[in-house]
Each structure stands twice: as C-alpha cells, then as structure tokens.
Amino acid sequence: KADDSSFNALHIMKHRRLNYEDVVILTEALKLNKNLHELISINHTIDCRSAELFGSMLSSNSSLNTLSIGDNRFGDEEIIALISKVDKNNGLEQINLEGKKSLGPIGAAALGSSLHRFSRLFALTLSGNRRMGDDGVASFFTACASAAKEPLALRRLELCRLELSSNGLLKGLQFNGCAANSGSAFENIETLDLSCNTLGVGAQCDAFEALLVSMPALQDIELRDCGLGDAAASGLSSALRKGAGTKLRRLSLAANKISIGGILDLANALSSCSAIKQETFAELNLRGNEGLGDDALAAIVKVFQARTATNFKLDIGETKVGVETIQQLAHTPSLVSLSLAGCRSVAILLPIFFQANNYPSIEYLSLSNCDLGEDDVAHVFEGLLTGALPLLACLEIGANPGVETNKSSGMPQQNLDGPLGNLVLKIKEQRPLVDIHWRIGDSPIKQ
Questions:
Q1: Reduced 3-state DSSP string for 377-435
Q2: pLDDT over 70 (residue 441)
Q3: pLDDT tens digits for 307-329?
C-alpha cells in the first residue's frame, strides 16, 4: 500500500499464510502500486474467487511484469476465472504456469483465447502440465489463432513435459495459418522449448514443417529428450531443406537416440540452410545420442568448417567421438565452445588438442566425466603450459578419477604438493585468464 520504490519483488513462501482475505488486501493494494514488478506464490491454493481478484487487479496494474501463482491444483476453472476478469493488460511480460496438474485442454484453450489482451507478454511457461497432452496443445494454438487479430507479442514459449506428440503439434499449427505462411499468431516467437515430449510419435515431417513455417522468427529450438530417432530427425531435415528455419541460431537434439542415418540427413539439410550460409546459426547440441559415431559426427563438423565468424558452439558429449571428428574440429576456426563431457574415448585423443595451431579460437572446453586418470589430466595441464588453446578461458575437467576434489578447498585431492599440484600453480602463474573448474557445478556455463 505504501508503494515503496525499493520494494520490487514479492515471493510468498510456503509457510506464510495466503487465504482469500489476504488476497483481497493484496490485490486491492496492487491496483494502485507502481513499483512491484514480480509476484510469485506457487505454494498456495488459489481458488476461483481469488483468481478473479487477481484478474481484476491485472486490468488495473501496469507495473507488474512477472506473475507466477497457484499450487498444482491451479487448473482449468481457476484459469478461466482469472482471465474472465482481464480486459487488457499492458504490464505483464512473463507468466509462469508450470506444473499445474489440473490444467488441461479446457484451461489451455481459455488461456490461448486471452493472450491477445496482454500487449507486452513475451514469455509464457506451460511446462509440466501433463493433462494438456495433444488435445490441450492443439486447443491452445487454435484458440490463440482464432482470437488474435494480429501476431502476439510472445517471444518465448515453454511447452516441456506435456505428453505431446507430433500429431498434437501438427493439429494446432495447421489451423494457425501455416499453410499460407501468413496470419500466424506466433510469428514473433524466437525461443521454443519442447523438451521431454513424445515428438517421435506421429507425423514428424509435417509437424516440423508446420512448426518452422508458422513460427518464422524461431532462433532457438530445444528438442531435448523427445524420442525423435532417425525418422523424426529426417522430418526436421526435410523442413530445413524446404527453406524453413531461416532465423535459426540454436538447435538442441540432445538425448534423442539419433544415429548415423538421421544425422547424415541433418548434415545434408544444414549445408543448404540459409542460417548456416549466413553464419547466424551458432549452436548445436547433440549430447547423449550414444549411437552417434565418428563418421556421423565428422559429417556434421564439415558443415561448419568453412565458416569465418567465430561464434560456433558444439556439444557432442556422451557420443562415440573419434579421431576424425577431433581433427576436423581442430581446424574449424569458428569453434569457440566444445563439450565432450561423458565421452570415454577422450584420453587417446588428447594429443590432437595440443598440436601447434589446433583449436585457435576455442574459449570453453569441457572434458568432464571422460574417465581421465591423473596422467591424462597432467597431459592436459602440460599442454596448456606450452601455449596451446591460446584463447581458452574456461576448462571444465571435473568428475574424472584423476581430479577427485577436496571438499573444503575445491582443489584436487591427490598430489597437491606433487606434480599435478605444481602444474596447477604454473597455470595460475602463466595463464591467469584460464579458469579451471574441478566440479561440474562450479562452471557458469550450463551443461
């Protein structure tokens, strides 16, 4: 009520009371408040009466930009109650409705039909609402397209863990104007997260083409652990070959059981993709596709070898990487970040990293969980002392037998006063800009 300019965020913790009477007081105060920007209360039951109060508040408040309310019982009826009271909102930028177990197709459709009322909403999270499924996602897309007279402001959409198949994705997007490549309510979407769905089931080729056409501004697509396999990877490749995905900057296909057939098709498609030719595509994640061997990975690397822009990031951790791939990467001047975490063959590949002129632009290298012994780690440190990897800023080498760490110091447990410890001290002296992370959690770069 005091509208304190220093009071910008309110997180109501689980042990705090928030009943209907409290919501009345809170929402009335927020109608006039101009300084609170973030409201989070995800551990309290918000019934329909309280949801209506929040909706009325949102019609008056234009300063609140982040909203996440309701525990896992916040579902269809509560969503409908909330949006029924929102005439227009010019403040909210982010709405998080993750993990509402009661949110299904009816609530998803109601939410979709209301998004055009939020003129500044750029991020929406619906992840973890497994009741939505194919019908819920299709209803959401269809409602958005039906209600919006112009493209939504939405830039980021998270639809993880929804039990969504390619059929559900296609059903919603076909209605969304994609056939004519116009009128899409989602044509401003830049980031789409579909992780942990079942997109390997259904009409993958048509679904991916519909996705990329109806969302022409897409830059970042996260498809981790979607059970894609080679068939779905080829479906995505087909869409890319048809000219879709012109704005693409990042693609994650991690943990999708893709093997050589799917990856060769993808390499072929990427080689003709305009985002590759214009060198705007910058990051590819293939981690956890354990069936990928050296031939398949080398084919992907060839696509990026001729680039001049130093902006390429590659994650091929937990694959069967071999000599050919590592040698090709060594002469890929655009490569600035490489993760080999979980690759058990790294020890025999280490000499390639420290040959003269190899990896001239690399800034980040992950060798975590690669089964490196103490001698292998010493080889890495000695290589750095020769001046190899001249631009390296971060080396992640945790979760290896050769660097069991002391919990109090965070430094290698063994031989702190011996050869390994001496090498560490020399690196700190000669290359102070190299940040060595002994544990995966120490790294500021997401794994």
A1: HHHHHHHHHCCCCCCCCEEECCCCHHHCECCCCCCECCCCCCHHHHHHHHHHHHCCCCE
A2: no
A3: 888 899 999 999 999 999 999 99
Output the average pLDDT for the chain.
90
Q: How far apart are CA 171 and CA 177, in angstroms?
A: 12
The closest of 61, 72, 153, 91 to 116, measured between CA atoms, is: 153
Contact 362, 337 (CB under 8 A): yes
* Half-sphere exposure for 279 (CA within 13 Å, toward CB): 12
Q: Give the SS3 label for residue 83.
A: helix
Q: For residue 160, give the amino acid letter.
A: C
Whether the model clears a pTM of 0.85, i.e. scores above it, the answer is yes
Q: What is the DSSP string of 11-23?
A: E--TTS---HHHH
The pair of three-digit structure tokens given for residue 430, joined into one six-digit string? 């000669």
Rounded to whole angstroms, the maximal C-alpha distance in the chain is: 71
DSSP per residue, 85-131: T-S-BSS--EEE-TT-TT--HHHHHHHHHHGGGBTT--EEE-TT-TT
Return the structure tokens found at 206.
């048509």
DSSP 197: S
Rounded Cα gap, residues 266 and 258, in angstroms: 10
Alpha carbon distance 248, 269 (integer Å): 13
Q: Which two tokens stand for residue 74?
A: 């916040």
Spatial CA neighbour of 372 closest among 405, 395, 350: 350
Cβ atoms of residues 224 and 187 within 8 Å:
no
Give the contacts of 32 (CB within 8 A, at least 6 positions apart): 1, 3, 60
Q: Of the candidates 36, 89, 79, which has an alpha carbon nearest to the alpha carbon of residue 59? A: 89
**Bridging pattern class, strands 156-158 and 9-11:** unpaired
Q: DSSP string covering 289-347, please?
A: -TT--HHHHHHHHHHHTT--SS-EEEE-TTS---HHHHHHHHT-TTEEEEE-TT-TTGG
Instruction: Provide the pLDDT for residue 182.
Output: 41
What pLDDT, in 10s, does the model give residues 51-73? 999 999 999 999 999 999 999 99
DSSP for 354-366? TSTTSSSS--EEE
- Based on DSSP, count helices (H) and strands (E) in the chain, helices before strands: 15, 15
